[in-house]
Amino acid sequence: MLAGETADIKAGIKAGYEAGNTVWTVSYMNSEKGLSIKDASLTDTTVTLSSGLLKEDTFVVFASAENEKPEGILSFDSYYLSGYEDNMEEITLDAFMTDTSDLSAYALVRTDGSEPEEPEIWIEAENSLSATCEFTVSEAGTYFLFVKDESGNVTVSDGVKVSEVSFAPNGGTGEMPVLLKVKGYEIKGLPENAYVKTGYGFTQWTAKESGKIYTDCDSFVEDIDEVLIANWSNTIYSYSVNYYLMGLDEEYHEPSKTVTSQAVINTVIDAANDELISSFTGFTFDSSISDSGITVTEEGLAINLYYARNHYTVSYEYT
After folding, report:
1. Cα separation of 49 and 32, whole Å?
2. Which of 138, 213, 273, 311 is the most exposed place for a label (fewest CB within 10 A)?
3. Contact 128, 102 (CB under 8 A)
4. pLDDT exceeds 80 at position 32
């Protein structure tokens, strides 16, 4: 500012505070006077710089407000999923909270959808005005964050719904995890079916509540507790294994041998594990160009296995 110049100043009052009798004060660093405030009790006012000041004279203008009331103001708008370990059998809720009065404690409360009651056990807040925390939950329900300030006032957040997705074997045996998801997020990939049923192949999942159809690794976005029921089929398909032996021209032509078998739908045939690889005298199995296996999803699929011709060196010795 120049000597004699007047400038407008304006103060904003933070939520939870109100303007006191004096809003503006001046701190003189190199002099005892020189800056006048028209009305220090107003949030919007003007300041005027006196004439005849030295250039090294410095002034600092402060705005202040009084605490209106010690009620807590809570922010619980940051929560997310993290990890996805164990197929999302656990969910991490992340919370950030602030208060205009010193925080003293907080707690997470789970309900089945009803209104939450104030907790009996609290976690002591480490920072007086703000805190961040993570909660790991392994159960479906609606979760609420309670915050208490030093005066004993309690504030509670909006609820965060965590729903459950479970699996039913429908006559099969085995184990599948129970998945959790936060409302508004998605399970990006359902786990592969781990149930088995003798004489049957797994085809898909049917949702008990919505009736929707899901397959392995599909995304799940519904914000409801759901049970996915395994669907089975005993449809039998034929498949063949073709054995190709390298010709004298070192090319592969028609199969030298074909074996036909049958399997229930969606059976996984692994060439190595199902002992399909045979031995042929003078030939070596070539895994680099052979099929590793198939999933039997329709009639007439084939596994092609290739065998390279061995090369020999014959030496003669005359005596």
Report:
1. 13
2. 311
3. yes
4. no
Strands 123-124 and 103-111, bridge-based pairing: antiparallel
Please compute the mean of the pLDDT values over residues 121-131 and round it to a whole number.
79
Number of residues that this document lists for the chain: 319
Distance CA 186, CA 13 (A): 40
The CA distance from 55 to 84, in Å, is 63
CA distances from 135 to 94, 96, 123 (A): 6, 12, 12
SS (H, E, C) 224-281: CCEEEEEEEECCEEEEEEEEEECCCCCCCCCCCEEEEEEEECCCEEECCCCCCCCCCC
Q: How far apart are alpha carbons 115 and 224 in whole angstroms?
A: 19
Q: Enumerate the β-bridge partners of residue 66.
A: 18
**Beta-strand relationship, 154-156 and 141-149:** antiparallel
State the Rg of the chain over Cα: 38
CA distance 231 to 109: 37
For residue 172, what pLDDT band results from cuts at 50, 70 and 90?
very high
In tens, the pLDDT along 55-112 reads 555 556 555 555 443 333 334 333 333 333 344 788 888 777 776 667 888 888 999 9
Q: Please give the C-alpha separations between residue 215 and each of 191, 196, 204, 206, 207, in angstroms, as whole numbers.
A: 9, 15, 5, 9, 11
Tokens of 148: 């208490």
